[in-house]
Amino acid sequence: MQGKGFIKFMAILLGIVCVYSLSFNFVTSNVEKNAKAYAKGDPIKERAYLDSMATVPVYPVFGFNYEFCKSKEINLGLDLKGGMNVTMEISLAELVKSLANNPTDANFNQAVSNAQTELNAGGKDFISLFVNNYEKLSPNGKLADFFATQDNAQQLKGDASNAEVKSYLSKEATSAIDRSFIIIRSRIDGFGVVSPNMQKQEGTNRILIEMPGVQDKERIHKLLQGSAELQFWQVYQNEEVYSVMENINKTLASTLKDTTATAVKDTAAKTESKLAGLGKKTDTKDSVAKQLEATKNNPLFAVLNVPTYTGQNGQPALRPGPVVGWTAQKDTAKVNSYLKRPEIASIVPSSFKFMWSVKPIEGSKVFELYAIKVTSADGKPDLGGDAISDARHDYDQKGKPEVTMYMTGDGAAKWKKITAEASADPNNKKSIAIVLDNAVYSAPTVQNEIPNGISSITGNFTVNDTQDLSNILKAGKLPAPARIVGEFVVGPSLGQAAIDNGLLSFVLAFVVILIFMALYYNKAGWVANLALLINLFFIMGILVSLGAVLTLPGIAGIILVIGLSVDANILIFERVREELLQGKSTALAIKEGFKHAMPSIIDSNVTILILGIILYIFGSGPVQGFATTLCIGILSSLFCAVLISRLVFEGLLNKNSNITFGNSVTLHAFKNIAFNFVGRRKIYYIISSVIILAGIGMYFKNGGLRLGIDFKGGRYYIVHFDKGMNTEDVKAKLTPYFDNEAPEVKTAGQANELKITTTFHISDPALNADKVVEDALRAGLAKTDTKYTIESNQKVGPIIASDLVYSAYGAILFSCLIMFVYIIVRFKKLNYGLGAVIALFHDVLLVLSFYTILDGVLPFSLEIGQDFIAAILTVMSYTMTETVVVFDRIREKLAETGKEDIHGEERNTVINFALNSTLSRTILTSLTVFFVLLVIFIFGGDSIRGFIFALLLGRVIGTYSSLCISTPIVVDLGKSK
Where are the transmembrane segments (predicted)? Predict the structure, then answer.
């Protein structure tokens, strides 16, 4: 074996990377274990402990802090952890209207309406749709008349063509999406979500947000859908505010005499705060009594540090600048509660308004407090976001990132006055705070009066900082409302059940494979098991190192990959057996077995990898999770099953170990088999045709396929009752509350678990539509007089549903095309490619037929959704894997005869030989994967039962198709001699 040193080096290197990646889980687990021991069941104390450890080094040697380690551990998906998954859509229709100052032109507004309708029906680019519709309605109309204004004269001229206007609108649309992304991200950060995940869905005007652990839906709805409000405020300097802060501290000390809460004790023990004397720090070694006394005497300064520095005389002095306080994130709520107390509000001047920084100081969890100066009688800001005409990320003369901000005509006049006041004292230049959603993004110091409305904002910025700030400045310029069009909520109890079921199915499936390989292949089977264990270790390590999210379908993907990785070992071992039966030595048989099996292994794994990539591109959410683990697993399996196992075999041979590839029962299995697959192919055609015709008949009888809300839009809720419920009774109770629109009610595995699906108010754009539907649901469920819990819910808007339908079609057709091209290139025969593609369509039709025939018969849902498409594509990969193995054997046989192709009975004989000689591998691989899927189906939980059923069905159909359809059909597609 060549390159053994390199393979060992790569295995060791990959092992080190995986150990490093997985080590973070052990570190965080140890810290969290200590937190639980410290808290003794008190969640507040546990959270406080973890917050205090955020910046403390906890990783040995490297010294990484807990917050960093937490960000590097395995990311669990919402289906395993609980939380919310939200899809936001930026309203480009309202953006376009706003850019044109909401014109009353009938053709303009009709074009916007038509474009929105076409977008809902599956269109992609709203701007293109709008321009096309306007040009149809007004062939001679000029869009520049609506959009070219004095404020955007630098970007759009008055005589601009419609194409130039389209380009301008496209840039503004992209900018609006970017701005919304920044704003939503800052709101989520402020909400305190741990490890949120946000993604802009490229090519669309949508943003996908995952928030693990979040359950307060109404608060999230308000948080995400509220309109942004950009403001500019003058701010007080630190030295101007300190006397007020000292007065607040004294007042609190006199009113909070008997504070005995445990949280105060914890805060006093962990915080080194500056007290009223400035610069004096609480001695953390003092007794608890002294700490509590200090906290009691200085309640504000116990949680809020006043910015100071050491002066030339060695004494502490107030630090100049707009920041008036620092506090840990966990203590911001305490400071807020102090400032809101009636006795405090009465002593704070009316011109004061306190605001926090939008994000903590870099590398910490410490937020800055600002004192905003209210200069108007009505309490409004000095300047609003509507004063901004544009803002750009730029560089100053020294090449450092900065932001250039442009004001409108009215805004420039006000800006001149504000900046003149802020820079009037050359020895004490003031700052102006840039505020969005009552959080301070930046508070730059004004150096000079700015008369022309063009300002440069500089500071210790990175490129990302200036890009974000420029987007923030443009956020208040034009309204582009963001609305929730898709939503998925999983309760924590359901998430824990998913973890338990997933782990159980994982362990059992893995044990099934290990036992099978050991029993069937004896000592060689143990080599394969060792490779499987290393493979599993590599898969988990790679997933963590890439930051991939582990979901329940992802676990199913890992289990499936482990089952499929056995395929490579079976291919090799069966070829080794053939060589041994020819009387070759064990060493030579192993060498020849690996050599002859490699083309089939490469072909079969490449086909699955291609389909995994297609799944990842076209899928989203759980489908992408499945595809991620599938792709990673295939690459890892190839490395372990082929290279690692070969190294182990060579090591055993060097030690003269006796290597066996079976026992007396299994060694001669599948020998001397000669089924006439080609001769009976017409019988198989008839069987398939009957099933497909029956499926078509049931399709019309049932009124079509049962589409999930993924493909038709709607909401569904998983509701757990304290006892078993009758679905028809629940439906009857709910219907009156849904305006007599009967929902669909089904059991979700057990009689006390119901899945309730409805399209009630699904197209309602109102912000409170979700609450209206849930209130109606709860009102109807209350009539059942049974205790219940809504464990999860999902919402899919009509636009998302139409997009998913087209993506599903595209995924299936594109994968068929790719497979067709691959087979033709690999085997250089058109009839092989046609046979493979026909078999793929045959498999899809059979699975759909069984779904229509069995719908309503089985005790679980057989809906067509995203997970079904993932199953279909996986089924197609099964067929392709089996088919290319047979094609490889035919190609090998042709090479032995020295012919490029054969015809007639000779061709039939060769095809039958190829099918029979690979039958052991086909049956063994199919049975292995089937039993693995069966274990997942039984123990994996209700949430993926329909998905796994499609895979089980596909495993059987894929095996049948590869033996009876895809290869035999080559005979009918091939030319006669």
Answer: 6-27, 502-521, 528-549, 555-576, 597-619, 625-649, 683-700, 804-825, 832-853, 868-887, 923-941, 947-971
Rounded CA-CA distance 46/204 in Å is 41
Measured CA angle at 35 (ends 34, 40), to 5 deg: 100
Question: Which of 662, 347, 312 has its CA nearest to residue 521?
Answer: 662
- Cα–Cα distance for residue pair 338/318, rounded to 1 Å: 22
Q: Which two tokens stand for residue 846?
A: 């059979």
Give the separation between CA 437 and CA 359, rounded to whole angstroms: 13
* Cα separation, 587 vs 574, whole angstroms: 15
Reference 324, options 343, 305, 344, 351; nearest CA is 305
Long-range CB pairs of 165-168 (<8 Å, 24+ gap) are 165/131, 166/127, 166/128, 166/131
- pLDDT single digits (tens) 501-524: 666 776 787 788 888 888 888 888
Phi, psi of 278 (to 5 degrees): 60, 120
Cα angle 264-270-271, degrees, rounded to a multiple of 5: 85
519 vs 523, 526, 574, CA distance in Å? 9, 9, 15
Contact call for residues 183 and 191 (beta carbons, < 8 A): no
pTM, entire model: 0.66
Cα 939 to its chain centre, rounded Å, is 25
Question: What are the b/e assignments for 109-118, b being 16+ CB within 10 Å?
Answer: bebbebbbeb
Give the DSSP H or E segment for 899.
none
- Enumerate the H helices of 754-903 as residue ranges: 769-782, 798-827, 830-854, 866-897
- Summarize pLDDT for 777-809 with one digit per residue, the tens: 888 888 888 888 887 777 776 555 566 666 666
Taken in order 758, 759, 760, 762, is the CA torsion positive or negative? positive
What are the tens digits of pLDDT across the range 564-591? Answer: 678 788 888 888 888 888 888 888 988 8
